[in-house]
Design a protein that fits this description.
By secondary structure, this protein is α/β, with parallel strands linked by helices. It contains four helices and twelve strands; from the N terminus they run H-H-E-H-E-E-E-E-E-E-E-E-H-E-E-E. Strand 4 and strand 5 form a beta hairpin.
Length: 189
């Protein structure tokens, strides 16, 4: 399957989910995630979901992680559309979020964070394949960001749907996932 086809198919499938289906799948993501054994971590990169697009929400997973590791810190990204890079800011009590030109919530406030300090990244996606290749929204922000992270960074995707067999048009700069959590199981790559 080509990326453009996957974007179209999985965007439509997510849009067709009823609220009760989203809530059930979200609960199952947390249950599956709780089965995952994570290495030591301090700093986790997360995203705020686009609820209107039925995007999986990492917040319950972050709450579980924080319960298990109270010293954990969270960082959120702000994009720089002039160069397709992301800037990262540490969550604090004064941080709030505003939607950017793509409708994505971005942080206002917080101390800047270097990509190499991040231990775990939750990555938004539309689809993924059985080899850990992901299909994002097509701008390459996360691939550029991940190329600047430590080689040891753990890359975790969240999907309400199982993988496709193969993404045919993977580019050399596309970064693979280490895990993808679905309602049915945890995929390790």
């Amino acid at each position: 399957m080509k990326k453009s086809e996957a974007r179209k198919i999985f965007s439509a499938q997510r849009s067709a989910l009823k609220p009760v289906e989203v809530n059930t799948r979200q609960d199952l993501l947390l249950i599956r995630f709780q089965q995952l054994s994570l290495p030591h971590f301090n700093l986790v990169h997360a995203y705020l979901p686009l609820y209107e697009r039925n995007e999986p929400d990492p917040t319950p997973l972050l709450d579980f992680m924080h319960f298990r590791h109270p010293g954990m810190q969270i960082t959120y990204a702000k994009i720089d559309p002039s160069n397709f890079n992301m800037l990262h800011f540490l969550q604090d009590d004064d941080m709030f979020f505003e939607k950017n030109q793509y409708g994505i919530p971005e942080p206002i406030g917080g101390a800047a964070v270097n990509e190499t300090d991040i231990d775990i990244v939750f990555i938004p996606l539309l689809a993924f394949d059985k080899s850990g290749n992901r299909v994002g929204y097509g701008k390459g922000y996360y691939d550029r960001f991940l190329s600047k992270c430590s080689k040891a960074v753990l890359k975790i995707g969240l999907s309400f749907f199982p993988p496709v067999d193969s993404i045919e048009d993977v580019d050399f700069f596309d970064k693979k996932l280490d895990f993808c959590i679905t309602p049915e199981r945890v995929y390790a790559f």
